[in-house]
Amino acid sequence: PIQPIIKDVGEIYSRLLDHRPVIQGEIRYFVKEFEEKRGLRELRVLENLKNTIFETNERVLPKCEQAMQDNLSETFKKLQAANAMIHRLQEKECEARKLQADKVMAREEKCIAHWEEFMKEQRNKRAEVDEEHRKAMERLKEQYSEMEKELAKYASF
Fold first, then answer.
1. Coiled-coil intervals in this record (predicted)?
2. Triad 44, 47, 48: Cα angle to 5°
3. What are 90-141's pLDDT values in tens digits?
4. d(Cα 21, Cα 42) in Å, to the nearest integer?
5. Could you tell me the pTM of the whole model?
6. How many angstroms separate the CA atoms of 20 and 14, rounded?
7. Cα separation of 133 and 141, whole Å?
């Protein structure tokens, strides 16, 4: 009596909760569907992809490399020529700056020499003026001294 009930419960359990047989059937159906319908299409896609890669590696890539190599060597030569021209321009500019600096330095030296000469003349002129002033002062002192003597003569009256 209990044995048949356990068997029935096990059968009910497996029908309600054990989905493995159903899932295995679905898996087998999916694999069969994939192999039959998609398998050939995927194989063709992979074959086309393989042919495209082979074509690219064998023909397109070498052509591109050669074109790039030719253009790069030509571009490199142009860059070298441009670099040489820029270098010459820099040298000319450097020489022009040096020449300009030399001219400025010569002008500054000339101005300094002029200034020193001017200051020397000013000192000489000041010395002359000072000497003239001293002599004029002496003459005036003598003149006033004589005038005082003359005045002293008249003051005695």
1. 72-157
2. 85
3. 999 999 999 999 999 999 999 999 999 999 999 999 999 999 999 999 999 9
4. 29
5. 0.39
6. 9
7. 12
